[in-house]
Each structure stands twice: as structure tokens, then as C-alpha cells.
Amino acid sequence: PGLDILAKRAGLLYFGTAIDNVVLNNTAYVSIAHNVSEFGQATPSNGQKWMYIEPQQNVFNYSMADAIMKPAKEAGQMRRCHTFAWHSQLPDWVNNGNWTKETLTAVLENHIKNEAQYFKDDCYAWDVVNEAFEDDGSLRNSIWLQVMGPEYIELAFKWARQYTGNGTRLYYNDYGIERVNNKSLAVAEMAKDFIARDIPIDGVGLQAHFTVGRAPTYDEVSAALTLFDDLKLETALTELDVRILLPDSPEKQELQAEVYTNATKACVDVAECVGVTVWDFWDPVSWVPESFPGYGNACLLDDDLQRKPAYYAIEKMLDEV
Ligand code: G3I
């Protein structure tokens, strides 16, 4: 019946995918990407990022985002929107600007205001702040931290609430927080502090970029999700993929299937985990080979758009819940 249909039967809100602009001319890809039975939710992999949305100061361009958001809406797919405040994929004018705290604060507010208002009521959730922490639990060095200080995070959440309205779930999103470790504990501390001080935060996204042989177990992912459950925050696996050290083999694909299934099952079983998004479903568009030379085949469908063992394993697990 499709992974989203099975996921809903298993109690999730959605099973979704990231969709990238570079392959929108491939009709076979697009028809799977917007098949609502398979993927009940879509996230633009790149289209809503700063360098494309506001390439020059106060000049906004929504064409890349629209190319994914509009067909997703027409198909009846929920949309998770990604992302406002991040250190990466910033245009040169942001990176190289001669900012004061005051001027950069105005830049961040103006960006969030425009993009949030443009997509008002279009997003189930926004990844308001992305990847703000280091593995040791300290804040990541970025232009935001350098110029605005740690308050940039809570300001981004306040503006996101102000300009999206109340209907949109506001998420903090990061990788490497799929185990209980210094990073996930630091995110939980921040969330706890936000809740205590009425800073609007609704959820935490665990990206879940995993590697065969080094991935967290079902128990580890469950424990990490539970950190946020205990704070009554919603969670989601927002960018799930499982890379393989090439060359690939049937054995590695079986291990990959286990990793995908364990993570998805943890989300099914933890009360506040609402859904799972894969960070694209097709190996040739995955971000992995470019960023991790020697690794690849991280997705559910192979080069020929054929389903891999991981696809069938998730399908079977969801069907048996
Ligand atoms: O925009 C240029 C385009 O003009 C050019 O023709 C093309 C040629 O290769 O490159 C395009 O830029 C690429 C961009 O994606 C858009 O396709 C960059 O080279 C490429 O590095 C960039 O990668 C993206 C990456 O974020 C950047 O950090 C990946 O597609 C995207 O999947 C990835 O997504 C991130 C999440 O946002 C946050 N979490 C981690 C995740 C994986 O890195």
C-alpha cells in the first residue's frame, strides 16, 4: 500500500522524504516523490535555504522552494520546512558582511519574517534552528553565534512564532543526537530552559544520518527520543539515511535494512515521535557520496529506482505493528 499508509496505520502522522530540485526533470523520480501513499510528507532538501531564498539582501526568491512545496501541497503531502537559522548554505553577503550585533539581528529577523510569512499555513513544521551544537555540547561557532551571541537561537524561535502564527510546529533540528550523549543532553537542557522561560519550541528533529556498522541501536534511539518525550516535546526523525562503505554487498544491505527498521520502530514506539523523513529516497541524489567519499547507497531505492531490502524491511515492520 505504500510506506505512508502503513506508517499511519502504525500510529505515526507520516512517513516522508526530502525532495531535491536537481532531479525535478526526472519524471520517474517526481512521480514517486509526490506519491502520497508512499510519502505523506515532503521536505525541500535545499529549496528553502538562505542562499536560494535571499541571495541578495532583502531580495527574496521562492522559485526553488515553490517547485517542491506546490506539488507537495497539491498531492496532499504534509510539508516540513527547512530551515531558517543555519551556519551552512548562507550567501556571501551574509558570510562576508561587516555586521554589528544590531545589524545582523535585523537581517535574521527580516529573513525569518519574509520566509515565514510567505509559507504561512503551508508548513506543518519549521526547522527554526539547525545544527547549532557541537558534539561536546557546546554551541557551534557560526556567524550567528559570533555576532549575536547565544541569544540568536531563542530570538529565531520567537520570530518564527510571531511570523508563522500558532499553527506551525517549531523545531530545533540536529544530527548526532540520536543517542543519549553530550550533544543530545545539551539540546534537552536548552529545550528545558526554553520551556521554563516561555520561548516557543514545539519539537526536536533528530536528523538520523547513520552509517552501517556504526549506527545507534533501537534502544539507543528510543532513549534519545525519550529525553524529549520527558519534556513533552514532539520529536521526529527528520533526515534518515544509512550510508554504506563501498563496495556494497548483500550483507551490507541487510545490515542497512536493520538500521532503517530499528530507527523507524523506535519512532513508532515512543509516544511523542510523530514521523520519519528519509533524506531522499533515491541513491543517485543522496548528499552522501559528495560529503563522504567512498560511502554511498544510503537510500531506500537503488540506481534503477528499485526497492532495496531496507524498503521491504520497513514495510514489513510497519505492517506488523
Ligand atoms: O546550487 C548549486 C548549483 O548552482 C550547481 O549547479 C550545483 C552543481 O553541483 O551545485 C549546487 O549546490 C549544491 C546544493 O546542494 C544544491 O544542490 C551544493 O554543491 C551541495 O553541496 C549542496 O548539498 C546539500 C547540503 O545539505 C549542503 O550542506 C545537500 O544537497 C543537502 O541534502 C544537504 O542537506 C543537509 C541538511 O540541510 C541539514 N542536515 C544535513 C544534510 C546533509 O548534509
What would you say this structure looks like, in words?
The chain is an alpha/beta fold. The chain has a single domain, classed as Glycosidases (TIM Barrel, Alpha-Beta Barrel), CATH 3.20.20. α1 (3-9) runs parallel beside α13. The chain has helices at residues 3-9, 27-33, 50-53, 63-75, 92-95, 101-118, 143-148, 151-164, 182-196, 218-229, 250-269, 288-291, 309-320, and strands at residues 14-19, 41-44, 78-85, 125-130, 169-174, 203-206, 209-211, 234-245, 273-278, 295-296. The radius of gyration is 19 Å and the shape is globular. The mean pLDDT is 98. The chain is built from 13 helices and 10 strands. It is found in: Secreted.
CATH hierarchy, class: Alpha Beta
Strand order of the largest sheet: 1-2-3-4-5-6-8-9
Biggest sheet descriptor: 8 strands, parallel, barrel
**Average residue pLDDT:** 98
Oligomer: single chain
Helix content: 40-55%
EC number: 3.2.1.8
GO biological process, one term: xylan catabolic process
Subcellular location: Secreted
Protein name: Beta-xylanase
Summarize this structure briefly:
This is Beta-xylanase. With 321 residues, this protein is an alpha/beta fold.
